[in-house]
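Journal club prep, notes for RB
We'll compare a predicted complex against what the paper describes. Inputs for the zinc ion case:
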Amino acid sequence: MPDVRIPGGVMTVAGSYKPGDQAPDGYLAWHDWAEAQHKAGLRQKECAKCGRWKYPQELSGQTAEYTGTTRGGQEVRMVGVVCNACADLPPNDQVQR
Ligand SMILES: [Zn+2]
């Protein structure tokens, strides 16, 4: 929790967050929250759908398969975790092709 020195005292500018709390709204609050998660040893993983980096409590437990390409040009099937926001979306990429 960042404290800001002001004349005559210290002002606390955001709430305190516990490891495992869901992310708050707001830029400064988010960074405050992320610092608490990181200090607790939690690390982010990249969502296999949106590519955003998420802490474990933001991940749905679902996985998604996607096709990656190696440096040699070989296509490989990859499995990655899916964040809560993507898990709530309709599964439009699971349509038969
Ligand atoms: Zn996602």
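Talking point for the session: The chain has two helices and six strands.
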